[in-house]
Design goal:
313 residues, alpha/beta, 5-stranded mixed beta sheet, 11 strands, 14% strand, B4GAT1, manganese, transferase, golgi apparatus
């Protein structure tokens, strides 16, 4: 796993180092399998770091969240206020993590997206027979009510969805984000008479269907060979960060294929009321950047399958 981290100033960098020491001390899987990359803002670089840190033997490995909160209490309010005023370099961080990933395939995901049980094992088995260079394998994403346990399989996920305790990611706040995945079709193999129902029971990965109604602003979480276009780093903060990269993939001729019965989850049923105003401000700024970006993509590939240049100046 490749994780990109962003730390501004000495206080945050000290917390970051302390917490990484904690994680590596407490969790063998993180110590053996996770590579961390660091980015710092030019205007707020650490001055007194790095330093060596030792944790007491009595540290509680069963409380990672509480431990992080304790460390974060050392960060002054001035630092927090600085962060609010500055946009997060999401696409730079995605590119940084990808450059330091040591595998032939990349699973594009965010840090708050939870994979379904045994995802790496069954995906590895599926990809061993993959010979498609320009295929992006979409892993459907659902929002989960925080009152439920993470579903152990697709059958349980569907049960939660029928009770209103799970739903497609961003369905209420921005439906175009995942709409092209076609969740209705993805749910079809839950029927006992479906030709691939046995896969749902065993967990074996297969291609449920192709994305046939690709639209701009589609933002799937996908697995693909590590040859896809990078994320454009002009897009900062929220809005137009992932979907522009997926759009460029589509222009270059990538096929998007939806996998089943694997999935990912995101905690919390989202509503527009929970979205802060600053997110829309960042989205508007990135929307202006897209006008230049789409012209560059057209010039680079001389293809315009979504007719994005129709209204270009």
């Amino acid at each position: 796993m490749s994780v990109a981290l962003y730390a501004a100033g000495d206080e945050e960098f000290e917390v970051l180092q302390l917490y990484l020491v904690y994680l590596r001390k407490c969790y063998e899987s993180i110590r053996e399998r996770v590579l961390f990359s660091l980015a710092v803002p030019k205007m707020r670089t650490p001055k007194k770091q790095p330093r060596g840190f030792e944790l007491p033997d009595s540290i509680d490995c069963a409380k990672p969240e509480a431990t992080l909160n304790e460390f974060m209490s050392r960060v002054p309010n001035e630092q927090t206020n600085w962060r609010i005023r500055n946009v997060y370099p999401q696409n730079h961080m995605r590119n940084l993590a990808r450059k330091n990933c040591q595998t032939d395939y990349v699973f594009l995901t965010d840090v708050d997206i939870v994979p379904s049980f045994n995802l790496t094992v069954v995906l590895d088995e599926f990809l061993r027979n993959d010979n498609c260079d320009k295929c992006a394998y979409v892993i459907p994403t659902y929002e989960l009510d925080t009152r439920v346990r993470f579903p152990p399989n697709k059958t349980e996920l569907i049960r939660l969805a029928r009770k209103g305790l799970a739903r497609p990611f961003h369905q209420k706040v921005f439906i175009h984000n995942q709409f092209a995945t076609n969740f209705t079709r993805w749910l079809g193999d839950a029927s006992p008479n479906h030709v691939h129902h046995e896969n749902v029971k065993t967990g074996k990965v297969y291609i449920s269907h192709d994305v046939t109604n690709f639209e701009f602003l589609y933002e799937p979480f996908y697995v693909a060979k590590d040859i896809v276009p990078p994320h454009d780093e002009r897009f900062m903060g929220y809005g137009y960060t992932r979907n522009t990269q997926v759009y460029e993939m589509y222009v270059t001729g990538y096929q998007f294929k939806v996998l089943s019965p694997v999935f990912t989850g995101h905690w919390g049923l989202q509503t527009r009321k929970t979205r802060p105003a600053w997110r829309e401000r960042q989205n508007s700024a990135n929307r202006k950047q897209f006008e230049t970006f789409k012209k560059e993509v057209f010039a680079r590939y001389m293809r315009d399958p979504l007719k994005m240049m129709k209204n270009a100046n």
